[in-house]
Amino acid sequence: MIYIGVMGHGTVGSGVVEILHKNRGTIAQRAGDELVVKRILDLKTFDVPYMEIFTKNADDLLEDRDIDIIVETMGGINPAYEFTKRALNSGKHVITSNKELVAQHGAELLAIARENNVNYLFEASVGGGIPIIRPLKQCLAANQISEIYGILNGTTNYILTRMKRAGLSFEEALEEAKEKGYAEQDPTADIKGYDAGRKIAILSSIAFEGHVPYTGVYTEGIDDISHIDMLYAEEMEYSIKLIARARKYDNGIFAMVSPMLISNFSPLADVEDVFNAIMVKGDAIGDVMFYGQGAGKLPTASAVVGDVIDAAKHLNGTKKEPDGNGTVMNVLSIDDYESKLFMRLKAKDIDGLRSKALEVFEGAKLISIDDPGAMDEVAIVTPPITEGDVENLLSSLSSGVEDFEFIKSIRME
Ligand code: HSE
């Protein structure tokens, strides 16, 4: 029998207990032994049939020598960081869904796990139930990975889907996402792109075999996307998605999260609601796409339990996996990133602005929609330009133009 301690009986933690109980027979066969939840740490009180195994004292798990595997589903940095270190240092394997902790302290916690000959596994920290971390480490290990990109946040994908499909404003779609339990009461990390930024930092650290600090990921959120932007996207046969991207170059890694206009012919445009999709580009495999439920109780718990089974099968030692040997990757500035830009501009003399925009952004295309909200503006799609050049081009465009206003730009694939 292998004993497990669960830290945090929230959405994911309770899902882990549920799956371990419901599928205990097949899980025992696959793990080679029976897996039993011995203690659950949570400060709240729950009215569940297994009430007697709850404790409010972390020592009841961390100092219990019978417990070999700790599931950390508390979320956040404190106290999860200290508890994880204590668990690893006392020779327990730790499985987590905690992307904040993995993005911030993953490299250190992996090193502590290695020193103590145990495993620190975090499949559930990216893409909820979608297998992506183990495929990157194992199934795609033959490849040189050059790029990872995709939709890594379910909440924002739900909001953008509802704005597109139901014509909702950003605020209305966010409210609906909260009512359905997708968005947190404080949705900042999702809508500002920080959550996707942490996830792309975790994935690129694995794919590029060196620590990519999440603080180096350039991040823009979706809170400025409007109904008018959605109408322009529809006119161009594009969809607006929050895209996370990391690319490897000879001199470092480029990583960003931002709203992007994606052609409706791209498979990413069809990824709707809370689903996630992650594309990986390898030199042998070409493009491969991972798709599924990126959040939610049972999908995320499915990934956690998969790791628990893996840890149970490797109870006597750390799995040998690439870890980058402590290398910290050079994260490149966004200034060199090149893409087409969809741009909305305003000025007193609309006809003059239109001709000047086409002159300054040579090769740009005009886009127009028949909507009262877009009557007094000019919209263009520029040819590919680097971020570092945009400011200069806009300053040439605005000079001498009365009441010039740069409304916004959105990067285009
Ligand atoms: N808030 C996250 C999302 C949960 O919406 O994708 C899963 O990491």
Write out key terms for the chains shown:
17 strands; 14 helices; 6-stranded parallel sheet; binds L-homoserine; Rossmann fold; elongated; 413 residues; 11-stranded mixed sheet; Alpha-Beta Plaits; Dihydrodipicolinate Reductase, domain 2; alpha/beta
Please tell me the CATH architecture of the largest domain by its name: 2-Layer Sandwich
> How many alpha or pi helices?
14
Portion of residues in beta strands equals 15-25%
Overall shape:
elongated
Question: Strand pairing plus helix content: what structural class?
Answer: alpha/beta
The CATH topology of the largest domain comes to Dihydrodipicolinate Reductase, domain 2
* Total strand segments: 17
What is the top-level CATH class of the largest domain?
A: Alpha Beta
Round the mean pLDDT to the nearest integer and report it: 96
How many structurally independent domains?
Answer: 3
Ligand inventory: L-homoserine
Query: What is the CATH homology-level superfamily of the largest domain?
Result: Dihydrodipicolinate Reductase, domain 2
Radius of gyration: 24 Å
Are there runs of 5+ residues with pLDDT below 50, and where? none
Helicity range of the residues? Answer: 25-40%
N→C terminal distance: 52 Å
Biggest pleated-sheet summary = 11 strands, mixed
Report on the architecture of this protein.
The protein is an alpha/beta fold. Helix content is 36%, strand content 25%. It has 14 helices and 17 strands. The chain has helices at residues 11-22, 24-31, 59-62, 80-89, 99-115, 133-139, 154-166, 170-179, 188-191, 194-207, 227-236, 297-313, 350-360, 387-398; strands spanning 2-7, 35-41, 54-55, 67-72, 93-96, 120-121, 145-151, 218-219, 238-249, 252-263, 275-282, 286-293, 338-346, 365-367, 378-381, 385-386, 405-412. Strands 7, 8, 9, 10, 11, 12, 13, 14, 15, 16 and 17 form an eleven-stranded mixed sheet that branches. The protein has a six-stranded parallel sheet with strand order 3-2-1-4-5-6, with helices on both faces. Strand 11 and strand 12 form a beta hairpin. Helix 4 (80-89) packs parallel to helix 5 and helix 5 packs parallel to helix 10 (194-207). The longest helix has 17 residues, at 99-115. The radius of gyration is 24 Å and the shape is elongated. It starts with a strand and ends with a strand. The site of L-homoserine (HSE) has 8 residues, from helix 7.
